[in-house]
Amino acid sequence: MLRSLPETADLIVLGVGAGMPLRVAVRHAAEWADPPFQGVFVEALRRAEAGETFAIALETAAATLDDVARPLVGLLATAESDGGALLSGLVRVSDDARRRRRQAAAIRARRLPVTMLLPLVFCVLPAFVLLAVAPLILTSLGEFDFGF
Q1: 5-104: what fold?
Q2: What is the pLDDT of residue 148?
Q3: So what's the pLDDT on residue 26?
Q4: Helices 22-32 + 54-61 axis angle, to 10
Q5: 13-38: buried (b, 16+ CB within 10 Å) or exposed (e) per residue?
Q6: Residue 18, φ and ψ in degrees, nearest 5
Q7: Is 126 exposed, middle or buried (0-12, 13-18, 19+ CB in 10 A)?
Q8: Which DSSP category does 13 fall into?
Q9: Which of 18, 103, 124, 136 is at 20 to 30 A from 79, Cα to Cα?
Q10: Is 90 helix (H, G, I), strand (E, B) or coil?
Q11: pLDDT tens-place values along the chain, 148 residues long
Q12: How wide is the angle at C-alpha 68 spanned by C-alphas 52 and 19, nearest 5°?
């Protein structure tokens, strides 16, 4: 979900920045969003068409999402119910999600050497010993006269 949050927020930014009302921007974003957000947007639009307010429908449909998506859903619901500024908030949510995604990638990158240590020790090191060190040892042992 963290991977698709910035792009989903950017899809809504594009729609709102082009002058679309929020519901229309969410409808267009639902067509291109990744599955967790796509399902939430479709469900919220379906509930809104059934008579529920869009803000409540969005928060109800977003109950299945992680806490990572709460800023986006909260911002959309607040903008729909109160008419608050949406574009700058969406850009902020998108930037914050990108920053968190970069931090998570940096954490995974820092764990990589430790993860690769076991295959390195048990696969590459024995192959190096067999191909580089073993022939030298066998050659030098063959030159000794043990007197047998």
Answers
A1: Receptor-associated Protein (1.20.81)
A2: 61
A3: 95
A4: 30
A5: bebbeeebebbebbbbbbeebeebbb
A6: -85, -5
A7: exposed
A8: H
A9: 103
A10: helix
A11: 778 899 999 999 999 999 999 999 999 999 999 888 999 999 999 999 999 999 999 999 988 888 888 899 999 999 988 887 899 999 999 999 999 999 999 999 999 999 999 988 898 889 988 999 999 888 888 877 766 6
A12: 55
CA distance 143 to 56: 86
Asked if 26 and 45 touch (Cβ cutoff 8 Å), the reply is yes
CA distance 9 to 69: 10
Could you give the dihedral angle defined by the CA atoms of residues 70, 22, 84 and 10, in that order, rounded to the nearest 10 degrees? 60
Domain edges within the chain: 5-104
Reading the block at residue 25, the tokens are: 């921007």
Q: What CA dihedral angle connects 19, 37, 72 and 46, to 10 degrees?
A: 60
pLDDT score for 8: 93
Residue 19, amino acid: G
| Residue 19, φ and ψ in degrees, nearest 5 | 100, 10
